Structure formats: C-alpha cells, structure tokens
Amino acid sequence: MSLQMGWTRLSFLLSHWVVYVKMSIYCQWSGYHDFPADEPSEYDLSMEKTEKGFHTSMHIPSVLCKHIVGKKGETRRRIEHETKTQISIPGPGIEGETVVSGREQEWIASACTRLELISSDARKRLPATHFMSVPLATPAFQEAFCTFQRDVLSNCSECRGMDSTIFQRPHRLHLTLCVLTLLSPHEVEQAVAHLNATAPLIRDIVGDEPLSVSICGVEYMNDDPAMVDILYGKVHTKDGSDRLQQLANGLVSHFSNTVFLKKDYEQVKLHLTLLNTTFRKKVVQGADSKTSKVEERRGFKDRESFDACKILKLYAEHPFGEMVLNEVHISERHTASADKYYTCTASVPLLEPQTE
C-alpha cells in the first residue's frame, strides 16, 4: 500500500511539474508574465484555511469559464480529479470569483495553474475590445484628411482596390499605441487603474513642455507597395525629440505585465492610419440590377489589398497638419461618443493642469 501511495505521490508531482513547464513555455511564447510584486495580480493565490483544508479564489471572466468547464463539464472534472480539488465556477453570464478548494495548498496551486493556462490560451483567441489611443480628430485635422481623401479618390481612382470605404472616418483619427482585451467590468477597472498609475511616467517623459507633432507624408505597412492593406501618415515631433516614442514605449511596457495586452512590442510603431482594408465594405447588386445594399466590413481573413504605388508617389510629403497632444485614452472599439470619436473608458492628461 505504501509503495502504491508513493507512486501516486510521484505521479502527482510529475504532473504538476509538466503543467508548470508548459505554463512557462506558454508565457514565454505569448509574452505573458506574472504581475510584479507591487501590483495586484489577477490570479493572487492567497490561501484561506477552512475546516477541510484550504481555498482560494481567482477572477476569471465569464466568457472564459466555458473553456474551463469543457464539453459536458469534462475539463473541470479532469482537473478536479487530477489535482484532488473542487472548483466552483459562477453560472453562465455571471461575473464572479472562481473558487478552488482542497486539502493541500500545493494541489490547489496546481489546479489554479491549469485554470490560468486554459483561460490565457482562450483569451488570446478573442478579438481586442479596447485600445490605447492618442486622439487626433481636431477640426483642422479632419478637414485636412477629407481634402486628402477627395484628392486620392480623384487622382488615383484607377488604382486597383481603391474605394472610398477603406478610408478612416475623419472623426476617428488617432495614434494607436496598443490593443487590449478587457473581458469583464473587473478587468476594465484594473486597466483604468493601470492607466492612472502611469501619471508619474508621463510626467518624467513629457516634462513641462507641450508635446507637439506634425503629420507629414504617407507610408505603408507591408513589403509590396502594389499590395497594401494599411496606409498611414508619418508622425514627427516638432522639437525633433524622441519624447513621443519614449512615451509610447513606456506606456505599453507598463501594460506588458498584465494579461490585457493583446501583443507586446519592444518598439511601438507611431502612425496615423489613413486607409485600412479591414474597413472595406462590399456593395452587392440586387436581383433587378437597380437595387443594392452594403455588406458589413470584411475581416482580416478576406481583406482585399490595394495598389498604393501612385499614392506613395503623389503624397510622399503631403502635409496633414500640426497639433499639441493633450491626452492618452483607453478607447472602446466599435463604439462612438457624442463627438463620434470612440467611447473613452479612461484618460490621462499629458501635461499637469494649470493652477491659478
């Protein structure tokens, strides 16, 4: 009996070690890291003593819980069996704490590691819900952009794939710093707290001088100018400094220790998106050839590129304007505020408010 118990114990430890190794490999591959010690972890495994052992709780967004439950509850039962724990998950559509209980703390830790691995893997397959932006949709920029759009449609209408629907909407002009996946009100609150915590970082980089930029010239994202998906305006700081680049890199780095960041970049590519083929809408002719309807935007998988060679030649140094950057937003995708810009979830100023 003791030999059998020894093998059972060894099997459990090996299973725990394999999950740990898989989790480490996944974290390195995906760019996910644990929260630093001075920031609250979403998966803080503080154990509480109970009459039958211990328990801990994890906040796992409801949309991810179905992956933990699995088909007919098989995934949860397997984890419970292999780690000798009980896992309590809120009902479908209910946001709450997932509670893991068991006799031994190491068993609970093993179960939580598996839950975290499953939820992290499921999260990366979901689309981004928010993004960090610097709004540029001033009246002057909107007017300059509309003039550019009219000129391009007039001068480059014969270019393959050129269409009015692939232009950015003027009231949504912005710089994108990074994209975020926030899956519950709790995660939104955490992201807002993270953004607010960047105020000292912003002060250190921006200082007391306004951060002014100019948008001049156009460039494309991919390698072939005849098959472009994104055309953007080039961003230049008026004082020639790298403060904006430092700021963008610093803000993204601050979020890199969270599970929210969709993709981590060592160097943020500063750009103002002007045309994007994911905006493209397809007009479908009706049966009588007189009626038509506009289909929804296409996704990334079936996007149709355009030939930007002529645009790049004609507008290589095209000026769009200058402005002082005022705020950084966490913006919610697929929404609109009263001014038709994206709904602002949170914002931080780039300069300290002036006091009289």
UniProtKB/TrEMBL annotation:
Keyword RNA-binding found: yes
GO cellular component, one term: nucleus
Pfam families listed in its UniProt record: AKAP7_NLS (PF10469), KH_1 (PF00013)
GO biological process, one term: DNA alkylation repair
K Homology domain: residues covered: 52-123
CDD domains given in the database record: KH-I_ASCC1
Protein name: K Homology domain-containing protein
Species whose genome carries this gene: Eptatretus burgeri (Inshore hagfish)
